[in-house]
């Protein structure tokens, strides 16, 4: 299971390692014919998942600043300009005109967002919003989507739900809906894909029904969020 999650995650980043090669690397064997940074990305993703699993098993996982930073530090090691804290400079998002919040506001945005997220009753809703909230605000110099998905799975696993790994074959849909999110602030298309992938792995819902409104935003209430999903 760990190999699959690691493979899917790095594949979404364009990493050329195949699934068997990822398994080999996780077994401690070096695979030839690849750039060192690609192998390091695989190992970093493993380390981040191991930390997440440890937190969940210990019952200490929650969405807070220290956990988000710790997960990102493992994910983005060797890739990001700086790790171990929120970014301290401006960034852009390739492929979109969206401008992320200034770095001076990241602390207050994380505090407001984490309070809101932890108040969401539905763990599935909380998980999906967390996955979009981190990259939307670009809290870190790199690894934002990966960090968001780790937080998502932390919420899911802590609540006895199946973790979600976006399949490599879903890369195009995932990337397109993520890009659209930045300009439209509408997370519903992204959440619909996530819900479909979740159902494919057998996740069961109350009454087997979830309603998605037409325009869901990854922002907390004071910034115009519409809750993305509701269990019925």
Can you put this structure into words, describing what you see?
With 232 residues, this protein is mainly α. The protein has a single domain (2-231), classed as Fic-like fold, CATH 1.10.3290. It has 9 helices and 2 strands; from the N terminus they run αααααααααββ. It has helices spanning 2-11, 19-26, 36-58, 65-75, 106-119, 123-137, 144-158, 171-184, 188-200; strands at 210-211, 230-231. Strands 1-2 form a two-stranded antiparallel sheet. α1 crosses α2 (19-26) and α3 (36-58) runs parallel beside α7. The longest helix is centred in the first third of the chain and has 23 residues, at 36-58. The chain is globular, with a radius of gyration of 17 Å. The chain starts with a helix and ends with a strand. 42% of the residues are buried. Residues 206-214 and 221-232 have low confidence and may be disordered.
List keywords for this structure.
232 residues; mainly alpha; Fic-like fold; two-stranded antiparallel sheet; 9 helices; 53% helix
Question: Which H/E pattern describes the elements?
Answer: HHHHHHHHHEE
Q: Can you tell me the number of structural domains?
A: 1
CATH topology: Fic-like fold
- Assembly level: single chain
Percentage of residues in strands: under 5%
Number of helices: 9
Contiguous runs where pLDDT drops below 50 for at least 5 residues:
206-214, 221-232
Which class in CATH terms? Mainly Alpha
Helix content: 40-55%
Q: How confident overall, as mean pLDDT?
A: 87
Order of strands across the biggest sheet? 1-2
What's the architecture, going by CATH? Orthogonal Bundle
